[in-house]
Amino acid sequence: MMASLSSLASGPGLDGLTLEPAHLRPELLDACADLINQEWPRSRASRLHSLGQSSDSFPLCLALLGPPPAPGALPTVLGHSRLSRVAAHDRSLLVETVVVARALRGQGFGRRLMEATEAFAKARGFRRLHLTTHDKQHFYAHLGYKLGEPVQGVAFSSPLSAAILQAFSQPASPPEPKAPSPCRKTAGTPSPDPHPRPNLAPAPPPPPPLPAPLLSPPALSPTGPPQQSLVETPYKDIRGRPIFWMTKEI
After folding, report:
1. In angstroms, rounded to a whole number, what is the distance separating the alpha carbons of residues 229 and 247?
2. How far is Cα 63 from Cα 95, in angstroms, rounded to an integer?
3. E-strand stretches of 101-162
4. How many C-beta atoms lie closer than 10 Å to residue 139's C-beta?
5. What is the pTM of this model?
6. Is 27 helix (H, G, I), strand (E, B) or coil?
7. For residues 108 and 100, what is the distance between their CA atoms, to the nearest angstrom?
């Protein structure tokens, strides 16, 4: 594979590239897993399982393919991107796991991967893409992406799972009033209790409320969303690293 990448890097390279859904090319899943694991190491079984979840109903993995290095050989996997639906935004997709083979970086393959990913999404009726990056914000800005706000990607692919997610997102309904029990008398003189209970001590008062937590999330600025730039971002990932949220109309 490295020999074929070297030949692409030394020549025009960008001609004849295609972008295909990974689930339509199962024979290339091993090569996709190797490419992604070079950037984000993970167990091979776990990576192949994630790639195997790709489907037309999303999430969907895309492979950037170069021409076969020899007659009868498989195409060369040069890049990868993943598309997921975005909660509460029917015409938006979240772009994840964007990677190009290290030997080809800085030669236009990243741009070609993103342009093909955008064309793929637009052809299916989507109008906006979202993504995150730790250090490639200038690259994406050069492609037309602007700083944006966080969104929630949806990993569910079945209609049933999506319906369950929507149900849990709805506010809870107030409980319905209970009808009086038919065994209880609502009027007239109450019947004497055949088994009178002894007088019990009154219930103790409820405990005092818990004290407020010492740490609380910072209040939002009254003037609008947090200030951000291509150099500084107010957002962090689960590990506490700065992360840039970006978006683009397609």
Report:
1. 14
2. 13
3. 128-133, 146-147, 153-154
4. 14
5. 0.71
6. helix
7. 10
